[in-house]
Specification:
Elements: H1 5-13, H2 20-26, H3 32-45, H4 49-55, H5 61-71, H6 89-92, H7 97-114, H8 134-146, H9 164-167, H10 176-180
Helix pairs in contact: 1-2, 1-3, 2-5, 3-4, 7-8
């Protein structure tokens, strides 16, 4: 049995990566004295720490999402605190099933496309018609690649119906055709600082 808060926090930190419990305590989302109750329920019912904490009503889903994003070093946005559109689910819900599927696609692309020919560093997301999801897929793939720490440049080459500026909440000042014609410098490339 753990007898004081410092001993409890040290046990949550463990060796190596930070635990969800330690992250929640360090950020003030959980009190150290509540962690022992969570650990007890976790042992008794075989739950994960976050599930036990939620079952006791001590944290919310948003708190667990935040802790997971910190633990795995995934950039993570809070709804309403960014201009990035909610359609870019990889930025807001990095542990949802849809984003897990996007990460699986990213892994397959890395194994079967980028690693086969190391010089190959480009990928085009195309479709013959409108409203087929290419802008959504491209924006979310760009985020999951950036979450790996990969330098990621997303180019919206849809000259008729560009959407990336809307999805990422940035100005549509300079288009691809302006850059290609030499009427603008590469300084026109816009960074998304939150991601």
């Amino acid at each position: 049995m753990i007898h004081d808060a410092n001993e409890l926090i040290a046990s949550l930190h463990g060796a190596g990566e930070r635990s969800i419990g330690a992250i929640l305590i360090d950020t003030g989302r959980l009190k150290a004295e509540d962690a022992e109750r969570i650990l007890r329920l976790q042992r008794e019912q075989g739950l994960r720490f976050g599930d036990a904490a939620k079952a006791l009503g001590l944290v919310s889903d948003a708190d667990i999402q935040f802790a997971l994003s910190q633990q795995f070093d995934y950039p993570y946005l809070q709804a309403g605190q960014s201009k990035v559109d909610a359609e870019v689910i990889a930025a807001y819900h990095p542990f949802s099933r849809k984003v897990e599927a996007l990460r699986a696609l990213r892994s397959q692309l890395m194994l079967r496309w980028f690693d086969v020919v190391p010089e190959r560093k480009a990928l085009a997301i195309v479709s013959p018609g409108r409203n087929e999801g290419r802008s959504w897929l491209a924006s979310n793939l760009a985020v999951v690649f950036s979450q790996l720490g990969e330098r990621t440049l997303l180019i919206d080459a849809d000259l008729r119906n560009p959407a990336q500026h809307r999805l990422f909440g940035i100005e549509n000042r300079v288009g691809l055709s302006t850059l290609l014609s030499g009427r603008s410098s590469p300084d026109a490339i816009q960074r998304i600082p939150e991601l």
